[in-house]
Predict the structure.
Amino acid sequence: MLVECPHCLSEVLPQADRTCPSCRGAIDEEGAGYWSKLRVSATERLPAMCCTCGEPTDEVEKVGADSRDGAPGWARLLALVFKPSLLFRPELKATQTLFEIAMPRCADCRSDEALVPEHVNEAHRAMTFVVARSFKERVEALRRT
């Protein structure tokens, strides 16, 4: 069975001695690592806690899943030449936002760098993020209620 290594965050099949084949860390080590991966859906209820540092916050950072399947360059060029107002139509944009997830994140963490998902699943409207382990545990507790 695949498990997440608490050290390198890789999804691995543990070796017979319960070590990670990627980093050789102990898979079952309690409290190992500050970070963890978490899959979040666009409709999920999230705690008022920064996903990066674990501090309480009511602020959010919106992370959008963008599609690069917009109009081809030649179509945008024709619109620019013949009718520039068409460039504002959603179907002619080069990228389109498919969905957004409002991740709880404090101002200090947002100022460091933007939150970037590890993986985007368009079909399920979900994203996988690297978050503080305490945030993941709180989300999992919310899911059980």
